[in-house]
C-alpha cells in the first residue's frame, strides 16, 4: 500500500514525459516530414527574404502551389518558413496592417523545385528564390485504414535498366551492394562515403544485337541475372566472381511473365505479394497505359473469388517497365521511366497497413 | 507460399475474364511499314551537303537521325550512313525515301520493318491523309491542332517549347528609342494571339523560358497595357514610323504580325508589317544561322526560337546566341552550376532591355494514325523516336 503513491508518481512522470515528447509544438512534427535538403533551402530563402524585406518586420503571407508538391508538403513548408522567419524576428500576421506582403510561390523547373518569395511594399516588388531537390521518396496517402503503398527511389540513370537488386550490408563483408542489370552490362555499386560507387561492370557480349524490348531479371539468392540470350552467374555478394555468358533462348524464362486479365484488361506487369496485417494475398498491378504515359501501381486484394481494389494507386511519372516481387513477398522491385526527365528509375515499392 | 500465390493469380485471371473486349496488351510487336509525310523537300541526306532552307535542314536532321548512330561534339552526324536504327533502301531526291530496319543496330532492331517518307506534302495534304488513314505520322502546325482534332485526327502535342518573339533589330534609328520599344511591347495582346491565331494551342510568353523549364515564367507579366502604351507613345516626339518584318513563307508569323499591327494602331502607334522573302527562322534548334531578310528595311522582326534542351540554362544560352547578332543583346554565358535565380536574373535583364519581346509559347504538334503505338513526344532538342514506335496489327489501315 505504501508503494502505491510512489508508483503513481512514477507513472505520472512517464505519461507527462511522453506527452511532452509527442504533444509538443507541431513544428517538430512538420520538420520531420520535410527532407533535410528542403529545410536548408527554406533556411536560405528566409535569409534572402530577411535581406530583401528590410526594414519590414511584419508580413502578410500568401502561399500558392503551382508545382507537383502535395498539400501536406505545402502545409509543412509554409509552417517551416514561418518558423524560420520568426527565428529572424519577423512576424507573420493574418490581419492588416502589415509592413509588406509576402507571396510564396512553390514552383518547379525541369529539374528542381523552385520556391519564389515576392516581397511587395507599395509599388515595389522584389523576388528572391531558392531551388530544392525533388524528394526521392514519395509516399502515397491512404484515406482509409487499409493499404498504403510506399515508394523508395533507389537509383536513376540515363541508360535503360532491366532489373536491379540490393545486397544488404549484413550479407557482405563490405558495404551494401547495388546490382543494376542493363541490356549490355551488369554493374555493381558499393555504398561508400554516403554514395553509390561503381566497383565493377561486367560486359554482356552477344553475337546478335539485343532486342529493343529486351527484358531481364536478377535472382539474387540463385546468384543469377538472366536475359533472353545471356546468363550472368556467380556470388553477387562478391562481384568479382560474377561472369556472363551466352545462353540458349527459352520461352519460359524467369523474366517473362504470363499476362493475366484484371478487370477486363490484359496485364503483363504484376507482382504477387504476401498478406499484410491480415489483408491479402495482394497483387500489385501496373496501369493500362502504354510506354508513353504516366503509370500507377494499384493493389488488389483477393476476397473470395473477387479481386478488390485496396487503397489508392501509387502514381509514377512514366511507364512501369518491370515489376517483380521480392523474394520475401513483402515488397516489389519497380523499374520505371521518368517521362519528364527521360531517366530510368529503380525503386522499391512496399505495402503497409494503417493510415 | 509460391504455390498459393500462383493459385491466387490463376484464380483472379479466371474470375475477372469477362465478355467485354480486351484492351490490347502493351508489349510491342515487330513488323509493318510506318508511313510518314513531311512538308519539306529534302534534296540530299548527305550531312555535308547544306540544306536550302531551315525547313529542309530540320527535316534532313530528322531523317539523318534514322541513318546515323551518333553525332560529333559539334552536333554533326558521324560514322557511316546505315549505322543507325535504319538503312536507306530507296531514295528519290526531293520526293520520297524508304528506310529499312537495321537488323544489327546496337540498341536493338526497330519495331517497324520500314519507314516510307513522302516529301513536299502541304499542311492540307498531310491533314487529309491523316484523316483518311493514308499516313501514320506527320507534323502539323500548332495553330491547326484543334482543327485536326475536330476532324478526328489523333494529335500529340509536346510541352510548349518554341518561342515566337519580336526582336527590335540593332542599328535601326527608330528602335533605338527605348520608350518606343516599350510602347510596342505594352500594346501587344498575347492572349488574343493564343486564343484566336493559335486556337488555344500555346500560351502567352512574358519571359524567354517556359514555366515548365525555368519554373519562374510566372514572374514575367503578359498582360496588355494599351492605355500605358498610348501614353508612352504620345510622349515621343517626333513619333517614328516602324516596320515589322515576318517570314513570307510563314503564315503564322504573318497572322501574328498583322495582329500586332492592329494592336499598335489601337494604341496610336505607327507600325506596318512587311513580308521578308527567304527570311527563314533563325533557329536555336538548328544552331546559329546567318541572319537573313536584311534585304528589305524592317525595324523589328518576328522570330521562332525552338528550345534545344529542356534545361533552362542551355536553352537560354542558345537563344542568346541567336538574339545577339539580331538585337545586339549582351549577356555572358552562365556557368554550368547556375542557379534558378541566376538564370531568372539573366532572363529578366534581357527582357527588361526591351530589345526582345516574348510573345507566345507553342508546342510541337504531330498527327498520328490509330495504329501507331508507343509514340513518345520528343523532349526539346530530341529527334523523332521512330525506332521506338510499333504498329498495332489490330487496327486496320486503308
Primary descriptors:
heterodimer; A: alpha+beta; THUMP fold; elongated; B: 398 residues; D-Maltodextrin-Binding Protein, domain 2; Dipeptide-binding Protein, domain 3; 7-stranded mixed beta sheet; 6-stranded mixed beta sheet; 11 helices; 20% strand
Describe this structure in words.
The complex is a heterodimer of chains A (355) and B (398). Chain A is an alpha+beta fold. Chain A folds into three domains: 25-132, THUMP fold, CATH 3.30.2300; 136-162 and 256-355, no CATH class; 174-254, no CATH class. Chain A is 18% helix and 42% strand. Chain A contains four helices and 24 strands. A five-stranded mixed sheet of chain A has the order 2-1-3-4-5, covered by helices on one side. Chain A has a five-stranded antiparallel sheet with strand order 6-7-24-23-22, with no helix packed on it. A four-stranded antiparallel sheet of chain A has the order 8-9-10-11, with no helix packed on it. In chain A, strand 3 and strand 4 (113-121) form a beta hairpin. The radius of gyration of chain A is 26 Å and the shape is elongated. Chain A starts with a helix and ends with a strand. Chain B has 398 residues and is an alpha+beta fold. Chain B folds into two domains: 33-158 and 365-391, Periplasmic binding protein-like II (D-Maltodextrin-Binding Protein, domain 2, 3-Layer(aba) Sandwich), CATH 3.40.190; 162-362, Dipeptide-binding Protein, Domain 3 (Dipeptide-binding Protein, domain 3, Roll), CATH 3.10.105. Helices cover 30% and strands 20% of the residues of chain B. Chain B has helices spanning 2-16, 54-67, 123-131, 145-150, 178-187, 190-197, 211-214, 226-234, 251-266, 312-327, 340-352, and strands at residues 33-37, 70-71, 77-78, 86-92, 96-101, 114-118, 137-140, 154-157, 162-168, 203-204, 242-247, 271-276, 300-306, 356-362, 365-368, 372-373, 390-391. Chain B has a seven-stranded mixed sheet. Chain B has a six-stranded mixed sheet with strand order 10-14-9-13-11-12, sandwiched between helices. In chain B, strand 2 and strand 3 form a beta hairpin. Chain B starts with a helix and ends in a 7-residue tail after the last strand. At the A-B interface, strand 3, strand 4, strand 5 and strand 16 of A face helix 1, helix 7 and helix 11 of B.
Amino acid at each position: 500500500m505504501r508503494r502505491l503513491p510512489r508508483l503513481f508518481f512514477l507513472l505520472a512522470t512517464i505519461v507527462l514525459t511522453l506527452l511532452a515528447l509527442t504533444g509538443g509544438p507541431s513544428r517538430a512534427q512538420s520538420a520531420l516530414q520535410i527532407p533535410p535538403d528542403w529545410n536548408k533551402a527554406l533556411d536560405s530563402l528566409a535569409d534572402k527574404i530577411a535581406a530583401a524585406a528590410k526594414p519590414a518586420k511584419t508580413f502578410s503571407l500568401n502561399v500558392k502551389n503551382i508545382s507537383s508538391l502535395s498539400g501536406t508538403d505545402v502545409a509543412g513548408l509554409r509552417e517551416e518558413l514561418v518558423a524560420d522567419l520568426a527565428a529572424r524576428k519577423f512576424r507573420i500576421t493574418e490581419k492588416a496592417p502589415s509592413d509588406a506582403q509576402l507571396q510564396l510561390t512553390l514552383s518547379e523547373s525541369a529539374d528542381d523545385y523552385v520556391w519564389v518569395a515576392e516581397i511587395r511594399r507599395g509599388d515595389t516588388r522584389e523576388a528572391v528564390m531558392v531551388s530544392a531537390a525533388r524528394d526521392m521518396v514519395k509516399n502515397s496517402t491512404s484515406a482509409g485504414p487499409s493499404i498504403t503503398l510506399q515508394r523508395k527511389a533507389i537509383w536513376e540513370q540515363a541508360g535503360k535498366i532491366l532489373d536491379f537488386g540490393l545486397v544488404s550490408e549484413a550479407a557482405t563483408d563490405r558495404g551494401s551492394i547495388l546490382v543494376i542489370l542493363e541490356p549490355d552490362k551488369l554493374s555493381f555499386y558499393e555504398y561508400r562515403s554516403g554514395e553509390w560507387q561503381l566497383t565493377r561492370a561486367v560486359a554482356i557480349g552477344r553475337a546478335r544485337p539485343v532486342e529493343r524490348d529486351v527484358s531481364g531479371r536478377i535472382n539474387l539468392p540463385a546468384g543469377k541475372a538472366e536475359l533472353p540470350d545471356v546468363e550472368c552467374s556467380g556470388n553477387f555478394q562478391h562481384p568479382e566472381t560474377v561472369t556472363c555468358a551466352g545462353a540458349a533462348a527459352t520461352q519460359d524464362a524467369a523474366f517473362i511473365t504470363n499476362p493475366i486479365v484484371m478487370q477486363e484488361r490484359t496485364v503483363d506487369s504484376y507482382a504477387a505479394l504476401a498478406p499484410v496485417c491480415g489483408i491479402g494475398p495482394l497483387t500489385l498491378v501496373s496501369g493500362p497505359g502504354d510506354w508513353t504515359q504516366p503509370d500507377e501501381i494499384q493493389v488488389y486484394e483477393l476476397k473470395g473469388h473477387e479481386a478488390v481494389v485496396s487503397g489508392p494507386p501509387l502514381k509514377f511519372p512514366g511507364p512501369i517497365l518491370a515489376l517483380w516481387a521480392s523474394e520475401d513477398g513483402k515488397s516489389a522491385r519497380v523499374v520505371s521511366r521518368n517521362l519528364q526527365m527521360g531517366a530510368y528509375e529503380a525503386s522499391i515499392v512496399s505495402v503497409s497497413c494503417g493510415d | 507460399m509460391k504455390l498459393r500465390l500462383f493459385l491466387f493469380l490463376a484464380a483472379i485471371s479466371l474470375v475477372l475474364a469477362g465478355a467485354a473486349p480486351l484492351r490490347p496488351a502493351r508489349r510491342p510487336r515487330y513488323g509493318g511499314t510506318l508511313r510518314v509525310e513531311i512538308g519539306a523537300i529534302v534534296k540530299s541526306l548527305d550531312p555535308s551537303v547544306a540544306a536550302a532552307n531551315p525547313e529542309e535542314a530540320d527535316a534532313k536532321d530528322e531523317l539523318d537521325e534514322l541513318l546515323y548512330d551518333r553525332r560529333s561534339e559539334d552536333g554533326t552526324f558521324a560514322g557511316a550512313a546505315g549505322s543507325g536504327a535504319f538503312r536507306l533502301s530507296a531514295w528519290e531526291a526531293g520526293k520520297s525515301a524508304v528506310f529499312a530496319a537495321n537488323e544489327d543496330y546496337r540498341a536493338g532492331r526497330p519495331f517497324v520493318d520500314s519507314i516510307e517518307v513522302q516529301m513536299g506534302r502541304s499542311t492540307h495534304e498531310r491533314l487529309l491523309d491523316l484523316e483518311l488513314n493514308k499516313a501514320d505520322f506527320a507534323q502539323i502546325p500548332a495553330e491547326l491542332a484543334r482543327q485536326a482534332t475536330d476532324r478526328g485526327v489523333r494529335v500529340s502535342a509536346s510541352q510548349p517549347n518554341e518561342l515566337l518573339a519580336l526582336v527590335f533589330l540593332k542599328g535601326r534609328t527608330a528602335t533605338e528609342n527605348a520608350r518606343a520599344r516599350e510602347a510596342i511591347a505594352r500594346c501587344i495582346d498575347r492572349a488574343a494571339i493564343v486564343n484566336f491565331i493559335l486556337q488555344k494551342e500555346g500560351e502567352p510568353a512574358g519571359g524567354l523560358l517556359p514555366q515548365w523549364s525555368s519554373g519562374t515564367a510566372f514572374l514575367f507579366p503578359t498582360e496588355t497595357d494599351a492605355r500605358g502604351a498610348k501614353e508612352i507613345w504620345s510622349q515621343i516626339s517626333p513619333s517614328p514610323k516602324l516596320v515589322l518584318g515576318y517570314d513570307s513563307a510563314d503564315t503564322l508569323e504573318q497572322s501574328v504580325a498583322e495582329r500586332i499591327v492592329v494592336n499598335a494602331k489601337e494604341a496610336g502607334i505607327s507600325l506596318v508589317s512587311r513580308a521578308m522573302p527567304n527570311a527563314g527562322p533563325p533557329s536555336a534548334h538548328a544552331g546559329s544561322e546567318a541572319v537573313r531578310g536584311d534585304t528589305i528595311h524592317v525595324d523589328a522582326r518576328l522570330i521562332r526560337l525552338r528550345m534545344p534542351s529542356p534545361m533552362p540554362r542551355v536553352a537560354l544560352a542558345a537563344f542568346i546566341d541567336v538574339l545577339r547578332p539580331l538585337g545586339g543583346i549582351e549577356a555572358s554565358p552562365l556557368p554550368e552550376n547556375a542557379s534558378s535565380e541566376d538564370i531568372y536574373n539573366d532572363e529578366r535583364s534581357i527582357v527588361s532591355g526591351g530589345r526582345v519581346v516574348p510573345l507566345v509559347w507553342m508546342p510541337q504538334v504531330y498527327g498520328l494514325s490509330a495504329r501507331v503505338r508507343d509514340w513518345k513526344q520528343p523532349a526539346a532538342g530530341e529527334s523523332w523516336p521512330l525506332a521506338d514506335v510499333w504498329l498495332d496489327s489490330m487496327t486496320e489501315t486503308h
